[in-house]
Structure formats: structure tokens, C-alpha cells
Amino acid sequence: MSLLFTSFPIIVKFWTPPPTEVENCSVAEETETSFRVFCNASSEDSDELDEHFYIEIREFRTGELLQNFSLNFPEAVVRGLDPGTWYAVTVYATNEAGRSKPYTLEIRTFSSPVTTNTPSSTWDLESSPLFFIIGAAVGGFLLVVVIICCALKFRLSRRKSKGKYLNATLN
């Protein structure tokens, strides 16, 4: 009795978990219409599978998806937002094994400055070359007037003293 053995390639694939949640998400450079969001990638090694990151921007009240980013690093600058509005920012990592637990931040853009027409106790003059030129011209004119006044006074006082000297010598 002869046994015939054939060899088949056996592929053993170990289960790899999806990436862990991103960490330490923060917001910086907030303005009226933009902000920068950044996170640290998960600290656990996902068996060296390539990780990609997704950032979703939703309007907080309605949950409407406004923007989404697919990135190699968990960092993005979000622009084109409305002033003074709350947003839900969700960041998660993915790899071939799946998706991480989402990390969500609530972020509010700055409100637009309010302008009023009430009188102010301070003047808000812009420093313009025109103001400098006008100020220099007025200052120069006043200096010339003061010099002329001093010269006239000096000349008149000299005439008076000369007249006293002549009267004293004639008497």
C-alpha cells in the first residue's frame, strides 16, 4: 500500500486588531473662520500596518457633515467655517484591520467683533505718512512764526535802547 502525499501551501494569518484611538487631540490657531486640529497617533504598534487618519467636521447642532479629511498624519487646518459656531470634530485612525474608536472634540470658532457707533474717550488715529507730513508742516510754520516774533521783539528793543542812548548823549 502506497500513500501519496501532496503538499499544499498553508497560509496562516494572525488576527491583527484595528488601530487604537488617537490621543491628546488639541486645537490651536483658532480664528473666526478656521482652526488647526492635531492629535498623537496611537501609541501601540499595529503590527506595522499602514495607518491613515480621518478628520470629520460636523455642525454641532445639526450633525451635518461639513468637511472631511483623509490624511497620513492626524493633523489638519480647517478653513471656511462660520464665526461663533460650535463644531464637532471627530478624529479616527484606520488600517487594513479596521477603524479605531473615534476621538471627538467640541470646538467653537471666535465670534466676529462687534462694532458700535458710540463715542469713545480715545482717538483712534492711524499712523499714516499724511498725518506725519501735516504735523511737520504745522510744526514748521509755528517755528517760523516764533522766530519772526523773537526777531521783531529783539529789533524793537534794540531801537528803544538805541533811542535812549541817543537821548542820553544829546542831553
TrEMBL record:
Gene3D superfamilies: Immunoglobulins (2.60.40.10)
InterPro entries membership: FN3_dom, FN3_sf, Ig-like_fold
Segments forming domain Fibronectin type-III: 18-115
Keywords: Membrane, Transmembrane, Transmembrane helix
Pfam families: fn3
Residue ranges crossing the lipid bilayer per the database entry: 130-154
PANTHER family linked: OBSCURIN, SIDESTEP PROTEIN
Name listed for the protein in its UniProt record: Fibronectin type-III domain-containing protein
Encoding gene, per UniProt annotation: AVEN_157208_1
